[in-house]
Amino acid sequence: MGETSVVQGALAEWWEVEVARVVYYEALGERFPEHRHEASVLALVEKTTRDLIAPVAHRYEVTIDHDAVERAGVEFANVGGDWREVLESASAVAAHTLQMFENLADVLPIEESALAQAVVEHERAQIVWFESAIAGKPYDWSPIDAYLERHGARQAP
Known about the structure:
By secondary structure, the protein is mainly alpha-helical. Helix content is 76%, strand content 0%. The chain has six helices and no strands. It has helices spanning 2-31, 36-59, 66-77, 83-105, 113-134, 142-150. Helix 1 (2-31) packs antiparallel against helix 2 (36-59), helix 1 (2-31) crosses helix 3 (66-77) and helix 4 packs antiparallel against helix 5. The chain is globular and about 45 Å long.
């Protein structure tokens, strides 16, 4: 039973992060209309990951408080001044959540290894994008595009 509760806890954490981030990026698209495309693609990455986690979470009888998590995502979208400051904040959070995702991936049963790999991959892809954006370089969409394609999604042109 203890092993199941650890898996349930990991899935709940992952799921909450993805649900919050979907609304976070959607709210950023509203807050920064000139960056709506970027925010929409980042939201799509989170939706894709959320939708990979949800059926596994249901299989393990995991539930989360969607409303509370979504409210937190909207609140976090109002933190920071300009677009660059918001990206710097999101990048710092992503570095932390990557570590969390890597640690939590270690507790999932082997039959969930594809999910563990996807969750870590999506975070790494976003970090690459954040780094290019913060550096003022052309956005590096390649890891994000590869992730979305691998999971049957794609960004709008």
